[in-house]
Structures are given as structure tokens and as C-alpha cells.
Automatic annotation (TrEMBL):
Pfam families named in the record: Csp
Top-rank lineage group of the source organism: Bacteria
UniProt feature coiled coil, ranges: none
Name the UniProt record assigns to this protein: Four-helix bundle copper-binding protein
InterPro entries: Csp_YhjQ (IPR005560), YHJQ-like (IPR044543)
Length: 131
């Protein structure tokens, strides 16, 4: 099952469907879980202070979750807030990716990769929304 398909099936999709936003929501959902998983893995790392990485991963997970929830809503219109949230989320994903890239753990590398992909999709979706 695909979230893109689910969004496309929404009755308001005929007038409010946006492929860039559907792509962003898809990545946001994965990024939410990947960041939460990375934070948990960082908690188990020994021999180094992973506090900042954990904090940014958890913050990124929460912001991605909120952004995905708003992006899923096709009834009505709140494009200005959604656009601002997508831009904020892109910045948060970039910040999380930069921190994860500082560490030589495979879970951090995967987290950084999904964060970079998610940031790009969030920027594309924000640019596609009418203000």
C-alpha cells in the first residue's frame, strides 16, 4: 500500500492533488521513524557523548511527524502554514543530517541519508504550494 495512492484517493484530490506534496509526505513518514530509531541506537552507543545527535534526531522525528500529518489533510486549505512547516522541516532535516554525518555509525549514516532526501522533498513540496 502506498501513501501516495491513499492521498490520490481522497475526494478532494481532484482539486487539491499535489504530487510533490505526496512525495514529501512519503519521505516524512519514513524520516519520522528513521530518526526515532537512530536516536534509540545512539542511546546504546558507548564511549562518546551522543546527546546532541539524540536531541536532533528526536526533534527531527517530531517535526517530520507533524509535517506529515498536516500534509495528509486535503480537505480545506492551509497552504501558508503548511508551506512554512515544510520549510522548517527541511531546515531541521538538514541540521539532523549534518549532526549524524559527524558520527561513524551505520545507523547515523542511514539517518543522514533519509534526512537529506526528506529535506529535498519538503523544499519541492513547499515550492509547489500556492501561497
Amino acid at each position: 500500500m502506498s501513501i501516495r495512492k491513499m492521498i490520490g484517493l481522497h475526494p478532494a484530490s481532484a482539486t487539491h492533488h499535489n504530487q510533490a506534496l505526496a512525495d514529501a509526505v512519503h519521505h516524512l513518514m519514513y524520516c519520522t521513524k528513521m530518526c526515532a530509531s537512530c536516536a534509540d541506537a545512539c542511546l546504546a552507543e558507548t564511549g562518546m557523548d551522543m546527546t546532541q545527535c539524540i536531541r536532533l534526531c528526536l526533534d527531527c522525528s517530531d517535526i517530520c511527524e507533524a509535517t506529515a500529518r498536516l500534509g495528509l489533510r486535503r480537505t480545506g486549505d492551509d497552504n501558508l502554514i503548511l508551506k512554512e512547516l515544510l520549510e522548517l522541516c527541511a531546515r531541521m532535516c538538514e541540521q539532523c543530517a549534518a549532526e549524524c554525518e559527524r558520527h561513524d555509525h551505520e545507523h547515523c549514516k542511514l539517518c543522514a541519508q533519509i534526512c537529506r532526501e526528506c529535506a529535498a522533498d519538503c523544499r519541492n513540496a513547499a515550492a509547489s504550494l500556492a501561497a
